[in-house]
Amino acid sequence: MSEPTPNSEIPHNRGRIDTRAVHAGQVSDERNGALMTPVYFNSTYEQDSPGVPRQGYEYSRTTNPTRTALELNLASLESAEWGLCFASGLAAIASLLHRCKAGDRVVAGNDLYGGTHRLFTRCYGQFGIEFEFVDSTDLAAVEAALAKGNVRYLHLESPTNPLLRLADIEACAKLAHAAGALCVVDNTFATPYLQRPLELGADLVVHSLTKYLGGHSDVVGGAILGRDPKVRGEIAYYQNAVGAQFGPMDAFLVMRGTKTLAVRMERHCSNALAVARHLEASDLVDRVIYPGLTSHPQHELAGRQMSGFGGMVSFELSGGVDAGVAFCNATEVFTLAESLGGVESLIEVPPIMTHAAIPAQERRAAGLQDGLVRLSVGIEHVDDLLDDIDRGLAAAAKTLAKASVRS
């Protein structure tokens, strides 16, 4: 991918993405030269006269200087004109749905984070908003769903969670626009360091800041990035009205995280590729899913629209869920926990953890088998990670042997 064109109105928005991750949106304090953006712990602001706020700040539910600095930083990384930060990734997506009314439709990928699926179907479906889930790798299926009309959003994850499928963002965005819809891409797994959907034609980018952008498993947050000022105004109105704001300390933590995004993602990618290859070489593993492997059905697309393949690896073991649970229970470097994108390696079984909210029949129909294991590969030494994989495989082998004896 080519380098994004910087928005010169964003402070320090020049240079390559590695440099902007450190500097964009942040200026030293004019009074004392403090290099880091302060954490503004305040709820309200002195006004110059009634109804005339100083520098546009009135109340921290609406906006806060620390949050503004992060929003400018993220906008620079995603080649956006603006950013809005929220209490969580789901709060960000919910603010998008506030723009919908009864009878509007949302077309989304059928391999979707369980929390997003729950938000769509159980929270907003009751208000007359219709959701249709399709295979986002199948452009004909996407086009057919959009052709039914009245679509407000085409909502994509790429790579998806947890099956790491890729949507052809450029092609999907063109289909969405032809149908009068906005193309929204959840870019959490790839991060702007590896993929910038707005440059490929998408209208809005969504992030869970909790994951790679924060990067240290110590903050929960979300963001929406875009270019259309009218859409920004509508989303910001709902954000303020419902109180889905992002706190200043959390904003500071994410800004600290983005400064090391480039070096962390390089290590995540190299470790994940090594882990994926190691798993693929084992006879105990039925399938390894990682866009960086030539066995991935969309490996070519990944190389075309991403500059790296990410830190997430999913795989299926012979022996199904029992073997998967045994594998997870045996690891020592990989911690059994939900979430992803931190410096530490995590492991989980999606059907009984992060994706348990999706009915089993729907999960299986989308290709999410009961024994799937998902890895968030961290930045530890690769040899320690591979040793831990072998520890898990040995435990899975014992489970398989016991099952064979019983049968």
Automatic annotation (TrEMBL):
InterPro entries: Cys/Met-Metab_PyrdxlP-dep_enz (IPR000277), Cys_met_metab_PP (IPR054542), PyrdxlP-dep_Trfase (IPR015424), PyrdxlP-dep_Trfase_major (IPR015421), PyrdxlP-dep_Trfase_small (IPR015422). The modification N6-(pyridoxal phosphate)lysine is found at K211. It is an enzyme of class 4 (lyase). This is Cystathionine beta-lyase. GO terms for molecular function: cystathionine gamma-lyase activity; cystathionine gamma-synthase activity; pyridoxal phosphate binding. It comes from the Bacteria. PROSITE patterns: CYS_MET_METAB_PP. Its EC number is 4.4.1.8. The gene is metC. GO terms for cellular component: cytoplasm. Keywords: Lyase, Pyridoxal phosphate. Belongs to the trans-sulfuration enzymes family. It holds the Pfam family Cys_Met_Meta_PP. GO terms for biological process: cysteine biosynthetic process via cystathionine; transsulfuration. Its cofactor is pyridoxal 5'-phosphate.
